[in-house]
Amino acid sequence: MNGAGLESGNDGFVTGKTLPLLQDTAAVDAWGRWQVTYRDVVVLDVEGRRRDVFNLTEHDLSNPGNLETLERILSAAR
Question: Total structural domains in the chain?
Fold first, then answer.
């Protein structure tokens, strides 16, 4: 999810892609409510509650172990 006020590059980010981009707004303030840090992957449950967080700065996906961990988190949430 992109942070509120950071929308300027959204068009280029989603062009030609199939995965949706969620855009936070000041009115919703999901980043604040979920205590998001830059580059967090926030995994939600079926009711939209924060289930897990995986930060891509701390866990570089070029490391196969980090990628496997994120895949396990996403699979468990599915």
Answer: 1
